[in-house]
Design goal:
The structure is a homodimer of 312-residue chains.
Chain A lengths: L15 H26 L4 H11 L6 H12 L8 H19 L8 E2 L2 E2 L1 H5 L1 H21 L8 H15 L4 H11 L6 H26 L4 H28 L2 H4 L5 H4 L5 H24 L8 H12 L3
């Protein structure tokens, strides 16, 4: 049985091609918006902005900004009102990739089939590109207060949420743990912790950011937080499986890198079949936490499901 | 005639020892506050926070946070109300030093007599420490909205101001220009531009941040902006002179590094004597822009003056 069919009971009408079209529409909206936002932050000197542009327009899936838009929608708001914050979250993600790829970190020459930022511009510029994208993210979130229907109070809350999630107790904390664990066997609990921090925290902050800007009440924000935790882990399990079973032409990077780097993954701990079952369980939990949100959460349900049956 | 004496006409009563005591009082307040702020942002995992602490408590002069406090004072507000933003500006400064010192950038092993962050913790951790300090800065500024007398509107304005000043069109832009010009002769105009971006923008954002949080009107903010520009250049000229004539035991780094790196400086363009005159002119301009602020700007006047007659 295909994974999609296991979710028939949710009356979701998941059709892979239709969903990919829906996803593409959102991705195109993000690309256009990222272009507009980039116009706001570019200027003198030219080199740093050219290199930032290279790092930002990298063929990414744009999951985080899409989550920001969905957060606003779940709160009953217009997703377009939170678009600058959506783009900011993508900038934070891209900065983390540029720094992760550096020789001093993961030392990756390619990302999504293109040479990494430091391969094109050198290490020094790549360090500054990461710094600049991170800084620009906060400039953009602050500028979201100029858009209709967004209060300064909520913008400040979002900056608190995002900075905590992206910082030393969140994403960067996950990267530090990751640095220390390459080549070292870690147990299941620590693997969860690592991924929750490294990937889950920014997913959570993205979804909550859109919702906070649109005044979602605390109890519903809690549900989004729980959803994001499950979503992040489902996403990571799928990533680990793709690294074993994926097609490197679709993924855009060589498969088998986890094994080569002797990394502990869901697959090394559980094997592919059990890992897949764990991923399905995570998505079922996602559905549970979205229970209260009705039809307006359908895209997010499909996204969670797609996350574990994607081939890239 | 000593430089100090040239400013007698301003009725400033500048006494070097008294001023150093005043400065020390403020520095101690900042150290204490940085410790308190650091308690707010530290947590799991331990290593990144230990390394952030190392990079932050580095014996720095704490000029930027002191400027934030003075900005609040000039606006007629209580400096203690803006203390978190003051600490945030120091975190931004410290992150820029950690990344600047990396082998891929300036490759410096010592700063203020202590091994640089990457020498102690390795390059990967140092990259993440810089990222984490920058991110924590925005977390702290956002948290300043919790303190009495600070509105979310003003916090958002400060985040816009600081992120622009620290970003690709500000400090990072200056660093990019600096990377490209080492070993290359640049003219006076480009030297000014380089320093305005690399140092001046963050001074400006610091002073304005405190003032904005305390509701200073636009026309007065403009004066602070002009002051900061002159202050930053005076500071830089003095730095260039210290690199030729300073005492490396007081400065905490080897002198002559500009010549060794074949860097264009105010001294290489103008010679020491002319550079000193330019610095004095900048400080006179500082005094001009502070004209409207009365006695409550006296500390800032003394600080500008001290900037060009300091020995460290």
């Amino acid at each position: 049985m295909k994974i999609e069919e296991m979710f028939n009971k949710y009356d979701l009408k998941f059709n892979r091609d239709d969903f990919l079209q829906e996803l593409k529409t959102r991705q195109e909206y993000i690309e256009k918006s990222l272009n507009e936002c980039f116009e706001k932050i570019k200027g003198y000197p030219p080199l740093i902005h050219e290199a930032m542009h290279y790092a930002l327009f990298n063929g990414g899936k744009r999951l985080r900004p899409i989550l920001v838009l969905e957060g606003a929608r779940l709160a009953g708001g217009n997703p377009e009102d939170v678009v600058r914050t959506a783009c900011a979250l993508e900038m934070i993600h891209c900065y983390s990739l540029v720094h992760d790829d550096l020789p001093a970190m993961d030392n990756d020459d390619f990302r999504r089939g293109k040479p990494t930022c430091h391969k094109v511009y050198g290490d020094a510029v790549a360090i500054l590109v990461g710094d600049a994208l991170l800084t620009a993210a906060f400039e953009l979130i602050a500028s979201n207060a100029e858009l209709s229907g967004i209060s300064a109070d909520n913008v400040v809350k979002v900056i608190a949420e995002v900075s905590k999630a992206a910082g030393s107790r969140g994403m960067i904390g996950g990267q530090i743990i990751d640095l220390g664990t390459e080549g070292i066997d870690i147990d299941y609990e620590n693997l969860q912790k690592l991924h929750q921090l490294k990937t889950g925290e920014l997913f959570k902050a993205s979804l909550k950011a859109g919702a906070i800007l649109k005044d979602m009440p605390e109890d519903e924000l809690d549900l989004l937080e729980k959803f994001s935790y499950e979503f992040g882990l489902a996403f990571q399990i799928a990533d680990d499986i793709l690294d074993v079973k994926g097609d490197q032409n679709l993924i855009g990077k060589p498969i088998g890198s986890d094994e080569k780097n002797n990394r502990t993954t869901y697959v090394t701990i559980f094997g592919v079949e059990k890992a897949q079952k764990l991923a399905i369980k995570r998505v079922e939990n996602c559905f549970m936490y979205l229970g209260n949100f009705g039809k307006k959460a359908d895209f997010l349900r499909k996204l969670a499901l797609f996350t574990i049956c994607r081939d890239y």
